[in-house]
Amino acid sequence: MSHDILTLATQIVTQLAPYTPQLIRVAQFSGNALAEMAVQNSAQALWNKLWGKLNARFGQDRAVTGAATMLSAEPDNQEFQQALIKILANRLQQNPDLVAELWQLLGDQDSVQKVAADQGSLIEDVEQEIVGPGTQVVQAGNDSAISGVKQRKM
Length: 154
Description:
Elements: H1 5-16, H2 20-28, H3 33-38, H4 44-58, H5 62-73, H6 78-93, H7 96-105, E1 111-117, E2 122-124, E3 127-130, E4 134-140, E5 145-147, E6 150-153
Parallel strand pairs: 1-4, 2-5, 3-6
């Protein structure tokens, strides 16, 4: 299955952005028992699946680490996210084997978002946002009404 590298980089950065402050600190102190304990929380899965692979391959790459460090200072900063996405996508183009590994870790499948109403149900004010390949569906049956639906593909 062929996947778009920019989509992959976007998914990775989107998932890692909230955790970059912690991930950067752990990467700096790798091997330290305290640093290893720091990833025992909700970021552990992200660390193991994504950051571990990226840091192993690009940990010495100044552009990648610089962009990740900037993002760690302001995880919600869209410009910093876009900078890391651009650099990561560039590096991933040169590493097709890593691209395949990362897609596999992310589930290697399209996302599906579905809202369904049946037999007189009402669907209102639904927002769907999807990153990468996937399908967004809003369905209504019988006498159902749909209003205020927003779908975005990132």
